[in-house]
Write a structure and sequence with these properties.
With 98 residues, this protein is an alpha+beta fold. It has four helices and four strands. It is 34% helix and 35% strand.
Length: 98
């Protein structure tokens, strides 16, 4: 299994409705892309104050390397990026094997 973690910092001008739309697009990925097992979406609520402006996280689980390779060039991923990337101030992408 592969975990695909995104830490997200949205631009200050982004509306909550735009963020909700992105969340919905991410959450539909397991239905649309073979090998994407799950998607979790979360809002930072740590009291430590060490998030450096990153406010949201996405944790995707891929069945295996083939699942990740299905997702990365997939047209649904491309469509998601068209909506998502213009809203970003910064992002960290981190993958690891479980």
């Amino acid at each position: 299994m592969i975990r695909h973690m995104l830490l997200i910092k949205f631009r200050s001008s982004v509306q909550s409705s735009e963020i909700e739309n992105v969340k919905n697009l991410f959450e539909k990925m397991p239905e649309k892309v073979k090998g994407v097992e799950s998607v979790e979406w979360g809002l930072n609520d740590s009291p430590e104050g060490k998030n450096e402006g990153f406010t949201h996280a996405v944790l995707m689980s891929f069945e295996n390397e083939q699942g990740r390779q299905n997702y990365l060039p997939h047209p649904e991923h491309d469509s998601l990026k068209e909506v998502f990337l213009p809203l970003l101030d910064d992002i960290i992408v981190f993958d690891y094997q479980v």
